């Protein structure tokens, strides 16, 4: 009786190469096809743990926590200054699902800076913003703009305390004209005062008070 021999199936070589290529644990620098490089920890072939990513095209750097291939946890993002050729921090703080989330500090061009809470990559919650002209806003934020209750201090120390909506004064509020020694208390709508009362406030200590005091009603 003849014996039939069946060819033994051999596993393709790429299966073995693929298993060896699956990254898990701490690895040295791994380069992507586009030139980006990552040095750090992996899990199931995804960036996971502590690591540093360098993007070739923008020369930006992220160093911090990763979770299943995305920035998640605490980390710092920096970009290369084209003039000084030095790295400058853009954001330092918490991330979730590759977006700013939680408390963090962002440095903007022109010297502006935000310190506060983030959600889904936008300023949300309580935070403080330092503007290029010397103004400071401290209060609530909603979808990347002042929204809720907050205080805006101008370079001359005059300030507004009250409600905000879509980045503008909105609702009941007080505006302290400390340079003139006056206080306006009223209601705003879309940044415009609609009605209110103007009284003297600290007129004696004001550096540039009005010529005559406001008569009492």
Automatic annotation (TrEMBL):
<dbReference type="InterPro" id="IPR003409">
    <property type="entry name" value="MORN"/>
</dbReference>
<dbReference type="Pfam" id="PF02493">
    <property type="entry name" value="MORN"/>
</dbReference>
<protein>
    <recommendedName>
        <fullName>MORN repeat-containing protein 3</fullName>
    </recommendedName>
</protein>
<dbReference type="GO" id="GO:0001669">
    <property type="term" value="C:acrosomal vesicle"/>
</dbReference>
<comment type="function">
    <text>Assembles a suppression complex (suppresome) by tethering SIRT1 and MDM2 to regulate composite modifications of p53/TP53. Confers both deacetylation-mediated functional inactivation, by SIRT1, and ubiquitination-dependent degradation, by MDM2, of p53/TP53, promoting a proliferative and cell survival behaviors. May play a role in the regulation of spermatogenesis.</text>
</comment>
<dbReference type="InterPro" id="IPR052472">
    <property type="entry name" value="MORN3"/>
</dbReference>
<keyword id="KW-0968">Cytoplasmic vesicle</keyword>
<keyword id="KW-0677">Repeat</keyword>
């Amino acid at each position: 009786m003849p014996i039939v021999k069946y060819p033994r199936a051999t596993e393709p070589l790429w299966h073995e190469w693929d298993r060896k290529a699956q990254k898990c644990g701490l690895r040295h620098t791994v380069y992507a096809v586009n030139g980006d490089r990552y040095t750090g920890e992996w899990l199931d072939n995804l960036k996971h743990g502590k690591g540093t990513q360098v993007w070739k095209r923008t020369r930006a750097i992220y160093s911090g926590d990763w979770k299943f291939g995305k920035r998640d946890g605490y980390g710092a993002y920096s970009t290369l200054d084209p003039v000084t050729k030095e790295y400058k921090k853009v954001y330092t703080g918490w991330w979730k699902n590759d977006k700013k989330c939680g408390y963090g500090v962002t440095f903007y061009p022109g010297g502006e800076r935000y310190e506060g809470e983030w959600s889904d990559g936008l300023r949300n919650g309580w935070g403080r913003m330092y503007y290029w002209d010397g103004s400071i806003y401290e209060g609530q934020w909603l979808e990347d703009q002042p929204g809720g209750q907050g205080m805006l201090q101008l370079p001359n120390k005059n300030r507004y305390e009250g409600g905000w909506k879509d980045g503008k004064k909105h609702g009941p509020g007080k505006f302290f004209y400390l340079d003139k020694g006056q206080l306006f208390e009223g209601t705003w709508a879309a940044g415009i005062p609609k009605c209110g009362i103007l009284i003297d406030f600290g007129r004696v200590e004001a550096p540039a008070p009005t010529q005559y005091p406001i008569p009492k009603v």
